[in-house]
Amino acid sequence: MIPTNGESAGLARRDLLRAAAACGVATVLPIGLAGPAAADPRAAAASPAGFYIGADGRLHTTGANSTSPVSGTAIGPPGGDLAAVQRSDGLVALFTIGSHGGLVAGFTSAAGSGMAFTRHPQGGLAAPGARIAAVEGQNGTHVYFTGGNGAIYHAAYSRSGGISVPLATVVPPGSVPPSTPLAAFRVGDRFGVAYVGGNGAVQTSLGRLGAGPAGPIAIWTTAAATAANAAPLNSPVAAASGTNGITTFHTGADGRLWRVPFAGLTPQPVVALSDPGQVPVGAHLAATAAPTGQFVVTYAGADGAIRAATDAFGPFPNPWVIGPPAVHAPGNPLALVHGGGDYLYIGWCGLDRWFWLIWWWLRRPPPPPPPLDPYHELHEVISSLPLRQNFNVDVVLPGLATR
User: Fold this and answer.
1) Residue 55 class from Cβ within 10 Å (0-12 exposed, 13-18 middle, 19+ buried)?
2) SUPFAM superfamilies under this entry (predicted)?
C-alpha cells in the first residue's frame, strides 16, 4: 500500500472521516453527517488519497491527517502534472512525465510493499511534468500525454505493470499546442481523450484495440465535439463516463461553463451550465459521474470559492458554492473522486497545506441556493514541505487503507 505517516500528526482521523463498519466494509462518512438509512453497505469505499509532486520532486500522498513521500527519489518537477487511477483490482496506477521527457509509471502492490516506479525507455517527447491524463479501461490502464511537438501520445499498461499497447501518437505532430490539457474517458470497450484542438474546438479521439504486426495497437477516430473557437487554446477540459455515456466540460472565452453530452459516441448540442463570467477563463475543471448517472464538475471561482455544477438536483442557473471564498486561487488545479454512496471528495494544494472538501452530493433534498451549500466540510492537512496553489493534483480511492 502507499506509505503514510502515523495518526499522531495533524487532525485525527475521526475529525475528518467516520468509518462505519458494515458487513466487513468501511463506509466513509463526514463527521457530523449521518448516512442515509437505505444506503447499501456494498457501495462503501475506502478513504481517499491525494497525490502531488512535492517541492523535492518526489511523489507525495495525503490522507486524512498527514502528507508523506511515496517515492524515494524525484520523479518529476515540483507541481508537475500527474494522473492517478484506481485500477479494477483496487490498486493504484500513477503516471507523470519524468526528467527524461518520457513516461514514469508507478504501481501500488497488493502485498503492501509500497509503490514501484518504472521509466518508459522512450524519452525526449515532452517537457518534464507535461500535461497527462489516464483512465482505467476494460483490459488495462490507458495513459495520454501532450508532446513537445504538438502530438498527443498514448500507451496502455497491463495489470502487471507492463506495456500492453505500445507508445504511439493519437494525433500527429502539430495538432495541438504543446501545453494542451487532456481529459481521459472510457465508454464500453472503447477509450478516449478530450482536449481543445488547434482551432479552439473541443475534440475527442476515440480508440479501439486492433491487431498490429507485433501485437495489439490502438486505432483512433478523432472528431470535433463543438464548433471552432468554442474554448480558448490551452484551456482545460474535463470528462466523465457513466451510465448515461460520456460527458465533456469546458469553459468558453466568455467565462461560461459548458457541457457536451454524448449519445453513444456522438456529441450532442452543447448545454450551458452557468451564466457568462462565472468561471475564470482557463480554469482547471474536475468532473466525475455517479453509478446512478448524475454528473458533477468543479472548479475554483474568481473569489477562490469551490463551485460545483451538477444535474443531481435538477436544472439551476449557476453552479453551487460548496466551499468558502479564498480557500483556493481562482482557476487553479483541483481533483475529485466520488466516494461511493452520497459523498464527493475534492482535494487541492494550498500554501504549505493540503485541503480536503467533503460534499454531501447525492440522495438528499436540494440545499438552499448560494452563497454557500451547508452540506460540506473543509479540512486542512499541514505539510512539512512547501506546497503551492498551482501544484497539479489527483485524487483516488485506492482500495487500500490510507490515513
Assistant:
1) middle
2) Fucose-specific lectin
pLDDT value, residue 7: 30
Output the nine-digit C-alpha cell for 212. 498490429
Using CA atoms, how far residue 283 sits from 233, 331, 345, in Å, is 12, 4, 19
Residue 15's pLDDT band, with cuts at 50, 70 and 90, is very low
Distances 125 to 80, 150, 234 between C-alpha atoms, Å: 16, 10, 18
Count Cα atoms within 13 angstroms, Cβ side, for 25.
13
In a domain, 18, yes or no: no
- Structural domain includes residue 31: no
16 assigned to some structural domain: no
Contact between residue 401 and residue 46 where contact means Cβ atoms under 8 Å apart: yes
Which grid cell is 283?
480554469
Number of domains in the chain: 1
For cell 460520456, the residue is 246
Cell 452543447 sits on residue: 270
Domain limits for position 329: 49-396
Residue 115 lies in a domain: yes
Chain Cα centroid distance, residue 62: 15
Say if pTM beats, i.e. exceeds, 0.85: yes
